[in-house]
Amino acid sequence: MDPYALKKLNQCRRERRAALLVTDLGDGRDRVVVEGDPVSGLLGEAVEKAFRSDKSATVEVDGRTFFLNVHLPPPRLVMIGAVHISQALAPMARMAGFDVHIIDPRTAFASPERFSGVRLDAEWPEEALARSPLDAYCALAALTHDPKIDDPALMAALEAGCFYVGALGSRKTHAKRVERLTAAGVPSSAIERVHAPIGLAIGAASPPEIAVAVLAEIIEALRSRGLEARKGEAA
Amino acid sequence: MPEEVQSEPLDPLMTAEDWMKAGKDVAIATVVETWGSAPRPVGSHLVIDGEGHFEGSVSGGCVEGAVVAEATDVLSDGKPRMLEFGVADETAWEVGLSCGGRIKVYVERLG
């Protein structure tokens, strides 16, 4: 492997950018493709497919054999609100392979005793997210019920293209939220991306059950991303 | 300041870069194909330094020894090797995959 390729690949991974190492198994030469870089021809199609499916694979192109090793950033779940649901959702999400980040400016909620071993910021979302920005590999769950805290985070998540955006609250609460976001200038196509009421409809009652419903909905969004992209192309 | 409390699992490619910066010889092994049940997915890495230290895995521990041994040759002549392991292989008794799958591992030198 080319040392420069390794450095570039690791740099992309540190910066949470999707990258792929293409190795020609015939001569051992390799190069890094960052998602969005143009790659022409059949190899380009294979590269695009690998990014979309998150599957590394060996491909034959024009009589040459290439290995495509995809490196997508690990999914991160950002919870707005250090609430009872978050206490159940944080350990479940970690078990499912997510990086977890909890943000809540209310220090009584955001106490390390309630969330041991989890990255927790007792700050306003604008401050915490400025330091640790959202991206397409983040899911955001707004769980405070407080528009002052939830709304700016929801807007940031829609702006950043998070693969999942969900907000706690009844249909009535959400209708008011839609009005506020519309008044703030968020386009309706973006507002429609907010999952609300949050979570799959499994009749969840207790906070841990709601956490299961939310995590299931997030995993569904994560694993169907490729399909959504394909649907988009066909349309 | 908020603390980063989540621990990162040991990452073979980051380790390879650290070793390279420390001036060590480094070989990188990558699972490039699997058939049947395989313990580690395609794309998994094992990295090996010139003294036989390694990080990561290409199987559940079944063939790592053989890959590390092969890496010594790759480091000395710089030529990449393609290794295949599986129950159908004649070396199965020594380093076969007990799960019954087959894997292909590409071993190359860094730089």
TrEMBL record, chain A:
Entry-linked Pfam families: XdhC_C
InterPro entries listed in its UniProt record: MoCofactor_Util/Proc, XdhC_Rossmann_dom
Residue ranges of every copy of the XdhC Rossmann domain listed in the record: 77-218
Designated name of the protein: XdhC family protein
Organism annotation: Chelativorans salis
Lineage, top ranks: Bacteria, Pseudomonadati, Pseudomonadota, Alphaproteobacteria, Hyphomicrobiales
Automatic annotation (TrEMBL), chain B:
Protein's name according to its UniProt entry: XdhC family protein
Domain of life: Bacteria
InterPro entries, sorted: MoCofactor_Util/Proc, XdhC_CoxI
Organism expressing this protein natively: Chelativorans salis
Ranges of residues in domain XdhC- CoxI: 19-86
PANTHER family from the UniProt entry: ALDEHYDE OXIDOREDUCTASE MOLYBDENUM COFACTOR ASSEMBLY PROTEIN, MOLYBDENUM COFACTOR INSERTION CHAPERONE PAOD
Lineage start: Bacteria, Pseudomonadati, Pseudomonadota, Alphaproteobacteria, Hyphomicrobiales
